[in-house]
Amino acid sequence: MATYGAQPDAVERTRQRRNAAAAASERVLSGALRPPMRETLARLAADGAAVYDLDDHPDQYGTGAVRALERTTAELLGTEDAAFFPTGTMAQQVALRVWAGRTGIGTVALHPLAHPEVHERGALTSLTGLRTVHPTTEPRLPSADEVRELDEPFGTLMLELPLRDAGYVLPSWAELTATVAAARERDAVVHFDGARLWECTPHFGRPLPEIAALADSVYVSFYKSLGGLYGAALAGSADMIAEAGAWRHRYGGMLFQQFPAALAALVGLRTELPRLASYVECAGPLAAALREGLADAGLEWPRVHPERPHTHQFQLWLPYPAAVLDEAAVRQAEQSGVSLFGRAPFSEPGLPGLSMIEVTIAASALEWTPADVREAAGHFARHVAEVLAEQPPGGAQDAR
Fold first, then answer.
1. Contact at 8 Å (CB) between 220 and 197?
2. pTM for this prediction
3. Integer distance in angstroms from the first to the last C-alpha of the chain?
4. How many domains does the chain have?
5. Domain that residue 146 falls in
6. Distance between CA atoms of residues 14 and 317, nearest Å
7. What's the pLDDT tens digit per position in 58-84?
8. Together in a domain, 218 and 282
C-alpha cells in the first residue's frame, strides 16, 4: 500500500487493524489465514505424525526429515534428486551460478518482472557477478521467436511459471515447449522458477514430472501455496544437485536443524497439493463474480487480470486510491464479519490512484458461491463510496 509519507507507526497500526479484522471475520474470500503460533505448533505436531516418524531424532545439517522432504520432492517432480534451501532466493542464486560455471557464460536471459530482477535487491549481480538480458518486456513469458532472436549470447534461460508480477500469467503448453526448444537451439540450459509450479498443472493439462522434464533445474516453494513455514527446493540431476549442495553450504544454507519446516512442507505436499486443482477450478467463476459485483454496484472500471485466471491467483484493478480501498475493506470486515481480501493490502504500482490487489483463491474460498461474491462485492462498493464521501478536498492522499 502506498503511504505518501505516513509515519511507520501509523502504517503498522493500519496493518494490525487489517490483520485483526481478517482474523475475526467469519468468512474470508482471499488468502489463507495463518493461525496463532500455539495453534500452528499443535497442528504441526498432530499432522506431522502422518508424514514422518516423530520418534526419530531431529535432523542435523540435512539429515532425517529434511532428507525425506528432498526425496519426496524429487519423486513428485520426476527428477533424480532435490536439495532443500531455507529460501527460494538462495536456491535460485545457486542454480544460476552453477549453470554459469557449467556453460561458461555468465549471462542469464529472463523477464524484467522475474523475481531476481524485482524482489532480490540486485543479488544476482552483486553476489554472483552474473548479468541479465531480457528477451521481452511484454507482460508475459517470452516467445520462442524472442528467445531465438535475442541479439547476444546467454547461458541460461530462466522462466518464472507463473509470472507473478505480470498477473500470475502462463503460456500455453505449446508456447512453453517451443520457447524451451528455442533455448536448446542456442545451446542454453533452462531453469524454471517454479515457486508456484504446483498449481500450474490444470492450465497446462500435464502432470508435474512432464512439466519439470522440460527444464534442467526447477525451484519450488513450500510456503507460497502449500502452507509451509518456509523453505524451498532445487530439483534436477544428481550431479547438479550435488554441486548446488556445495554452494548451499558456502551461502550459509546448511542450517543445523530445520525439521519444523521440513515437516510442514511434507504436510503441505500430502494435504494441500491435492487441493490446488480445485482452487484453480473455482478461481474463474469467482473472479468473474467479483468483477461483475463491483461493476453492478457502481464502482468504475473494475478489472480482473487475467480475465480468466491461469492459476488460483489473479489481480484486481480499481481506479481509486489504495488508502480508500483498504479502509473500505477493513470496515466491511469489522462491521459484517465478511472479508473479501483478507490480510492483503491494495497497492498503487503504477499511476497514483490506480490500485491493484492480488487475490488468492484457497480453502476458505471454496465455501463461497458466485452469488456470495457478488453480494459481498456490492457491500464493499458501498463502503468505498462511504469512505470517498468522507475525504477532504484534495482527496485521499491529503487525508493521510
1. yes
2. 0.93
3. 12
4. 2
5. 59-256
6. 21
7. 999 999 999 999 999 999 999 999 999
8. no
